[in-house]
Structure formats: structure tokens, C-alpha cells
Design a protein that fits this description.
The structure is a homodimer.
Chain A lengths: L30 H15 L11 E5 L2 E10 L5 E2 L2 E2 H14 L4 E12 L4 H18 L2 E10 L7 E11 L14 E5 L5 H11 L15 H10 L5 E3 L5 H13 L2 E5 L7 H10 L13 E5 H12 L8 E7 L6 E4 L5 E3 L13
Parallel strand pairs in A: 5-6, 10-13
Antiparallel strand pairs in A: 1-2, 2-7, 3-4, 5-7, 8-11, 8-12, 9-11, 10-12, 13-14
Protein name (chains A, B): Hydrogenase expression/formation protein HypE
Pfam families (chains A, B): AIRS, AIRS_C
Family (chains A, B): Belongs to the HypE family.
Chain lengths: ~350, ~350
């Protein structure tokens, strides 16, 4: 307790010393975020026995295995086409839990409110949290509210944390991709990011693009009912499909090859990305998942996905290879191949 | 998902309509906070099956009972005498879990960082979180980092969530106080609040007052080793001992009588409170607990508390009565009796 007032003597762990202060990119889910976890948080938390700070941790309790996850939401604006920060916060943590193959059970909600926030906005946000939780079959059981002075927040920041039960015999995680596996995405990519960008910047791209925010636990339950032989599940949020696949390639020490022509992208999202010089592979999703499973099961899983309301536009987008471990390559529309790297920072700040 | 952009039609539930916007007092742990939970959050979350949003929820998982809790920390300054926001965040959620009689097992950490935060400060904060978690025997297993634009945060906000296992046969909660029970506090009150206030306002009260931030799970384990017949445990944080006792009196529908002469208060804290016109009963603590148990066990529990490093100045401060249910009364130093009400807002904003 003696180190309270004193942070002298602390320096930035390398390679963070190149950036002595936090920059927006540290929250982008790309290389800077990964450096912060690897070089700052993990060494600090290792004292407590921390070994990994992935999307959802697996905890053995009695005879059960729980998947436990946390996520804070700072999206702006608070209300956007297709959703608001409240349902985004509920669905986001549900999805992190579901990506371990777990059935989410309970959530907590921690609010940081800014002085002056209209209570009708808070009531609308809280209501949609309750609706989202019920839709996913999850109960909001614990809460906390703090208030910060006007000018020290942005209306509402929400943390949701929660856990679910991993069914017996399920072993799904980012290290389990294997050469020969197929890569399936559950639907169109980039919807959430473009929805936020369009309302934030007042842009029009023909049709209104709505956020895809949705709880994926029902879809995951269907997939596991089809086969338990799924290796990896991942919701490609911040940093998009490209960042998610890069993390999986590194964690599993495998190569990944995708075919850009097979990527499902809404016309309006494609148009917006072309206009803005953005790549849909890097744009955030909030209601999509990537499933990686043996190629022999891929068609069955694809059919099962397409039978679910949240998976109608699912597609097989690539495969796992033993070549170039740690790297993601893409066959482009004109027949070439490019490396799909992880972004350093982010394309769009405050996306979730 | 269709209600995304639209919060028209939402109005403030009564009695919140008197305050159409969030004010600092909504985060103070007093009447305004309670109204927000009762009239806004609980009705909204009831859709999901929520029935209570207490400090830690009890969840049955397989054969085990878990206590699950969340807390966000927005204290300023980030570093203060006796601690910093990091160890406060770790200890705070550990204590909420411990107040159900549970042994905390794992914690998550969600960071909202402000652009421009020096990384050496973040490294110091993260380090002390690791140390605090190890001290309490808890593992930090899941994390999340978001970054907000300069001017939309205050350096660091931290959410911690976590759960622990409630031992078989333990039933501790705020509704269980019974007439005839004794009320014990584990040490001097008001230390944390005065420590924050002194450094924030640059005040001197003779000796430096240090925050009492500490993990109470070890002390709770000792008490439960002495007797499992403990009815209520409570850490009197925001709103102090007065607010905690009011909440217990209401939840248990009992009266509470305390004797102010028995309240342990450090000289420097008493001096600061007199100078500032504050009542130590309302000042926050971050390493103290209130235990309520049958009077016949009180002396044993008191002795056991005093044998623990965090309970050396423990004292029996009052008793539970069947009179005036829902109210807390105090015998004053000059022999009178006064009602100790819950505060409307708060004495000190941003205390935790």
C-alpha cells in the first residue's frame, strides 16, 4: 500500500517506450492493443497467476467449466442505426462467452454515467439491455453505477461481464486451428462499422446500413448440435475479420488463406468502403462469427448456419494451411495473392 | 433492433422525473442511487429475469453456489495516500464477493483509458493490481481495453468483475439481520474518504491519513472459521457505515441502534471531519466490514477479528432491534438519540 502516491521509477516496458502515452490505436484491437496486453498487462498480472487475457477465460468450478468474459463499451454515438450502446454491450459479452462454445448464463452491468445525461436516454438504453438479455436467455444479475463530472465521460460507458457453462466435451479456442480446416463466416461483414461511421459522419451510402448487433449463442448452440468437432469460434469485432484471422493464425501457429471473392459483403457496405478507401476485412462486426472446423464437416456446418436467422448469408471463405504459419493471405478478385496483416492501430475509433 | 436511433417516447420513471438528468448524487450510493436502481434499472432488466441488483449475486452452477459481482472505479486522483485506482479496483470487487461469505476465485479487468495517459502510470497501476490480486489469492483471468478521446475520460476508469465460491451451508446476505443480533465493525471508519479528500483538496490534518484499501476475504474466512452463524456482512464503501446500515435495516425490516461512542475513528479523521463539518459515519471505507451476528457469538467474533491484521481495532458498535423497522438510530456522545438517515446524494464525489 506504500506505493500509493508514487509512480516514479515506473517506465514503459519495451516496445511501448516508442509511445510514452496512450494513443487511440491502443484501443483498436490491432498491433498496438496486442502490445499493451503482451508487454504491460500480462507481465503485471502474472503475479496473480494470469497466463492469458483472451476474450473469455475458462475456469473450472466444481465439476463444471465456465467461460468468463468482460468487455467495456464506449461507442459513439450512443444510438445508431440498428441498435444502441446498451444492446451492443449485452450482445458483445454474450458473444465472447459463446465463442468458447459456452451457453451464457448471467451478466453484470457496470455504468459510468456523465453528469447531465438525460434520464430518458438512460431509460431507453437500460430497456434495450433487458430486451437483449431476454432474447439471448441471459439474466442481468449484478450492477454498479458511477457518475463522473460533466466533460469527463461521453454520456454512458458500459461494462458487461458474465459467464456461461461450457458443455462437457467441448474444446473450442483460438489455438486449435489445424491445417486442412475450413473457415466459415456466418454472414455479411463490415455492417456494424459502416453503420457507426455513417451516422457519426453524416454520410449516406444509398441504403441505410444497420449494425448487425445480435446474440450469437443460439447460432453456436445449433452448430454444436450439428457437430462438436469445431476447433475455433470467433466474433470478428474491432479490427474485423482480418484481425481475428491474424490472431488465430498466430495462436494456432498455422497459415490461413482466404478467397476475397467468397466474402459476403452488402452492396451498401462495399460502396461505402470504396468511397472511403477502407477494406471491409478490417471493419467491425457485432453479430457475426467465424467458425473453423475440419473441411469434411464444413458443408454440414454451412447448411446449419444458413438455416439460422443469423446465418442466412454464411459462406466458406478460406482454409487453414501448414504453409506460412502466423500469416493470413488472401486471393484477390483479380487472381493475385496479398498478405492480410494485422492493423497497427484502427480504422475507426470508438466503434464498440 | 429497430429502436436504435430512437429514444423518443421514453420518459423518466417516477420519482426520477424530478431530476431529468443525471446528477453527481446518482453515483453516491445514497437515496438517488437507490432510486435509479429501483425505478430505472430494475424495471428495465426485469425482462431478463433480474430480481435484485445487490453487491454480489448468488448463482447456482452445477452443485456449487457462486457469488458474482461487478464494480467500476472512477476515483480521482488516480494515486492517493495508501493506494491507487488499480488496487482499489481489485480489492473492491474481492470485498463485494467476500461479503456473501464466498472465497473469491477470479477477476476480470476492463480499462477505459484516456488518450494521452502516460504509460508509466498505467504500468504502475497494472502492477499494483497484480500484487493486490496475488495478496488476496485471486487470479486476473480476463481483460479488455478501450481508449476514449482526450477530454472524454479521466486517465483511467477500471471495471473489475469476478466470482467466488460460497462454502456449503453459508447463508449471508443483507436481508438476514435479526432482532438481538450484535453489530461489529472491523476497524476505524472514514479513512478512505478522508485520504482522498485530503490529497484532492490539498488539505493537511496533522498526520497523513492513508486509504484503508485492503482485501477482506482473509478476514471473512477467519470469521467463518469461528462460526458459520453470521447473518450479514457488508463493506461500508460509498455512503459509509450509515448508508450500509440503512440498507440492511430496510432489507431485513429491522431497526438498528448504534452507540456513537463505540465507533472507532482515527484522531486525524475525526479532526478532518470536525474541520469540514462531515460525519465519519457517512465517509467511505475500502478495507472495513460490518458483521451482524447473534449477540451470543459477538465476543468470539470480535476476538477473532482483533487477531487478524485487518481487524485489530474492531469494535461492537450496536445492535439490531425489532423497534422502528427500517430505521437506524444512534446514541450520541452526549447521551441523546438521533436518526441516522441515508444521504440523498453524497458528501464526496468520485471516491471510488
Amino acid at each position: 500500500m506504500s506505493e500509493g502516491l508514487n509512480f516514479e521509477g515506473w517506465s514503459c516496458p519495451l516496445p511501448l517506450r516508442d509511445h510514452p502515452n496512450i494513443v487511440m490505436g491502443h484501443g483498436g484491437g490491432g498491433k498496438l492493443s496486442a502490445e499493451l496486453v503482451e508487454h504491460l498487462f500480462l507481465p503485471a498480472f502474472a503475479d496473480s497467476g494470469a497466463v492469458d487475457m483472451g476474450d473469455a477465460a475458462l475456469i473450472a468450478v466444481g465439476g463444471a467449466h465456465l467461460a468468463f468474459s468482460t468487455d467495456s463499451f464506449v461507442v459513439r454515438p450512443l444510438f445508431f442505426p440498428g441498435g444502441n450502446i446498451g444492446e451492443l454491450a449485452v450482445n458483445g459479452t454474450i458473444n465472447d462467452i459463446a465463442m468458447r462454445g459456452a451457453q451464457p448464463l448471467v451478466l453484470s452491468a457496470g455504468f459510468i454515467l456523465e453528469e447531465g445525461l438525460p434520464l430518458d436516454q438512460l431509460a431507453a438504453i437500460a430497456h434495450s439491455m433487458g430486451v437483449a438479455a431476454r432474447r439471448a436467455g441471459v439474466t442481468l444479475v449484478a450492477g454498479d453505477t458511477k457518475v463522473v463530472d460533466r466533460g469527463h465521460g461521453d454520456g454512458v460507458y458500459i461494462n458487461t461481464s458474465g459467464f456461461g457453462i461450457v458443455p462437457e466435451g467441448i474444446d473450442i479456442g483460438p489455438t486449435r486451428a489445424q491445417p486442412g480446416d475450413a473457415i466459415i463466416v456466418s454472414g455479411t461483414i463490415g455492417d456494424h462499422g459502416i453503420a457507426i461511421l455513417s451516422v457519426r459522419e453524416g454520410l449516406e451510402f444509398g441504403a441505410t446500413v444497420e449494425s448487425d448487433t445480435a446474440p450469437l449463442n443460439g447460432l453456436v448452440a445449433d452448430l454444436l448440435d450439428e457437430t462438436r468437432n469445431i476447433h475455433v469460434l470467433r466474433d470478428p469485432t474491432r479490427g474485423g475479420v482480418a484481425s481475428a484471422l491474424n490472431e488465430i493464425a498466430r495462436a494456432s501457429q498455422v497459415g490461413i488463406v482466404i478467397d476475397e471473392r467468397n466474402l459476403p459483403v452488402q452492396d451498401a457496405v462495399r460502396a461505402a468502403c470504396e468511397l472511403l478507401g477502407m477494406d471491409p476485412l478490417y471493419v467491425a462486426n457485432e453479430g457475426k462469427l467465424i467458425a473453423i472446423a475440419p473441411a469434411s464437416d464444413a458443408e454440414r456446418l454451412l447448411a446449419r448456419m444458413r438455416a439460422h436467422p443469423l446465418g442466412r448469408q454464411a459462406a466458406i471463405i478460406g482454409r487453414v494451411t501448414a504453409d506460412h504459419p502466423g500469416l493470413v493471405a488472401a486471393r484477390t478478385g483479380i487472381g493475385g495473392t496479398r498478405i492480410v496483416d494485422m492493423m497497427v492501430g484502427e480504422q475507426l475509433p470508438r466503434i464498440c
